[in-house]
Write a structure and sequence with these properties.
The protein is an alpha/beta fold. Helices cover 37% and strands 16% of the residues. It contains 23 helices and 21 strands. The strands form four sheets. A seven-stranded mixed sheet has the order 11-10-9-12-13-14-15. Strands 3-2-4-5-7-6 form a six-stranded parallel sheet, with helices on both faces. A hairpin with a 2-residue loop joins strand 13 and strand 14. The longest helix has 17 residues.
Length: 577
């Protein structure tokens, strides 16, 4: 019987560790610096290369994949590839999506030629380690590997940082190392655990329980960190133990199935339905769990600074008291235990009346509107994965009922338009639920060629393009009065030409349907339901002055990103990573 070889290669070592994280797809644009890694995948039974049309698509795909599977990975070539992907990786950093960025680097000989003789290597900026310096700003850890013997330790160190901080990491590996010998992986990787300060935790929980005991109208405001740190079960137990109503941020939407008892809706500041806004803003205790505070929601924090519990991975703030060495998981678990030790409590401050009423039936020849579209899509998306792009449809999608945990994806903190297209590739590869994308026609222009990737890999995403000929969210943010004036004209820089979406879909090999009326939408959804191995682009034709009612009600109020109140003190000084 042959002995198992004691050594593998640098490529096989990295592949094994990626597989250990549950990664089965590597999104990339092939380039010479990473060709050795891609060659190693040719005979691999688990980790498959998915070739995208551009690097930012690969980054968006890896981001969405990480949201669903826990971790994602992408690779590219030095300079032109890595820097093309940067915006997508930055979004993953901001929204805590653990993506492994693999960058093929120049060989030692290439570096020597540039240093000694000024002969620039391919894709060099003329400054050494330029990619590393840039990526150090948007990753939790970085490493450059120039010798095969250092690969195991450096790869493990960076991947452990990815697991520990739930943020992207960067690995740069010289192109001549992929096939070189190095030891096989030893043992399993695990996240570094921060020691729990029992005294601080106990004091923090005492403080929180005292606040809860005195509150008449408490509400939990759940954010994205509950999802990123895989705290779904712990959060559900907390709700059961406390009998507390809860809302989510857009980034935290569907952290639990929205059929969960106590769920009231998505609170995203001024874009929340008015009755939900009133409910949350009348609360005498807001418990924000894993919630990123942006200027869209800054007012409530300023208004209720002393009556808010803000818990994140970076520590806990209760009023003016800060507990920097208490983690989100320990706080949620500890608070659940304290609440469960008390007598069972009924659901307090019931918000059943906030449930949105069903829409009245509309005739088949009714022209499409945002409100009609999203009312009709509620049933269609029930067993699917909703991906909403930044734009008018992002806020309209907040009201879609999501019946399954992690059934909704949006980049609602970083807010890069066009994210949803690449995300549909990653989401389709990551899970069994079919992606349904809502994207504006302006955002769609950021990456329409993603249709080609979807077709190539037979990924049946449903891409709904809001075809209204205007950068709607930009127009609303700049001059919202346009939407109340029949004769008003949009700002010239927000006007868009109308594309021929049928011809575009055909060029990429995708299916197409047009929906100008409700009957046409129903027919488009019927066609989409029949497809199992092909994407479909649904051209949703809208009047350029149509706007979701959830946004229209904010017209005339202060800009949603303009925080109106003064803060008493810093929110919570987060430690990055």
């Amino acid at each position: 019987m042959l002995e198992r070889p004691r050594n593998g290669t640098v490529a096989s070592y990295l592949v094994t560790r990626l597989e250990e994280l549950g990664i089965e797809h590597l999104f990339n644009v092939p380039g010479s610096y990473c060709s050795g890694l891609l060659a190693a995948l040719a005979g691999n039974s688990r980790l498959k290369a998915v070739f995208t049309t551009y690097e930012m698509e690969a980054a968006y795909a890896a981001d969405a994949y990480a949201r669903i599977r826990g971790y994602g990975a992408m690779c590219g070539t030095y300079g032109v590839g890595a820097l093309s992907a940067l915006n997508g990786v930055t979004g993953a950093f901001v929204e805590r999506c653990p993506v492994v960025v693999i960058n093929g680097g120049p060989s030692t000989n290439q570096l020597d030629l540039e240093v000694d003789y000024g002969i620039m290597f391919l894709h060099s900026t003329g400054r050494l380690r330029a990619d590393l310096a840039i990526y150090a700003q948007v990753t939790a850890a970085t490493a450059v590997i120039e010798r095969a013997e250092e690969a195991p330790d450096k790869i493990d160190e960076v991947l452990i940082a990815c697991m520990t901080h739930r943020r992207p990491v960067y690995l740069e590996i010289s192109q001549d190392l992929w096939g070189q010998s190095c030891p096989l992986p030893v043992g399993k990787l695990s996240a570094s655990l921060k020691p729990v300060n029992a005294d601080s935790l106990s004091e923090c929980l005492d403080d929180a329980m005292a606040r809860l005991a005195g509150a008449q109208r408490p509400v939990v405001w759940a954010g994205e960190e509950l999802d990123r740190w895989q705290l779904h079960g712990e959060f559900a137990e907390l709700l059961r133990a406390g009998g507390l109503p809860y809302v989510t941020t857009l980034a935290g939407k569907s952290v639990l199935a929205e059929t969960t008892r106590g769920f009231l809706g998505v609170y995203d500041g001024r874009f929340a339905p008015p009755d939900l806004q009133e409910f949350v803003e009348r609360a005498d205790l807001v418990i924000a769990l894993g919630t990123a505070i942006t200027d869209f929601v800054g007012d409530i924090v300023a208004k209720d600074y002393n009556s808010m519990i803000l818990a994140s991975h970076g520590g806990i703030r209760i009023g003016h008291h800060i507990y920097p060495d208490v983690g989100l998981r320990e706080f949620v678990v500890g608070l659940t235990y304290r609440l469960a030790s008390h007598a069972a409590v009924p659901l307090r401050w019931d918000g059943t009346a906030l449930r949105q009423p069903g829409s009245s039936p509309s005739a088949g020849d009714s022209p499409m509107t945002f409100d009609l579209l999203f009312a009709r899509m509620s049933d269609f998306v029930r067993d699917k994965l909703v991906i909403a792009d930044t734009g008018l449809s992002l806020f309209a999608s907040a009201g879609l009922p999501i019946a399954a945990r992690q059934g909704y994806v949006s980049q609602s903190i970083w807010m890069s338009i066009g994210y949803s297209l690449g995300a549909s590739v990653g989401a389709a590869c990551a899970g069994t639920r079919r992606p349904v994308v809502f994207v504006g026609d302006g955002a769609f222009r950021e990456g329409p060629q993603v249709l080609s990737t979807l077709v190539q890999y037979k990924l049946p995403a449903v891409i709904c393009v809001m075809n209204n000929g205007i950068m709607g969210i930009q127009q609303f943010m700049g001059h919202p009065e346009y939407y109340d004036s029949a004769q008003g004209q949009p700002d010239y820089y927000n006007a868009l030409s109308r594309w021929d979406y049928a011809a575009l879909a055909q060029a990429f090999g995708a299916r197409h349907a047009r929906a100008k009326t409700l009957a046409e939408l129903d027919e488009a959804l019927r066609q989409a339901a029949e497809l199992t191995a092909s994407p479909i682009l649904i051209d949703v034709v809208l009047d350029e002055k149509d706007i979701p009612s959830v946004i229209r009600h904010t017209t005339g109020r202060a800009a949603p990103w303009a925080v109106q109140a003064n803060f008493e003190a810093p929110l919570l000084r987060r430690i990055v990573p």
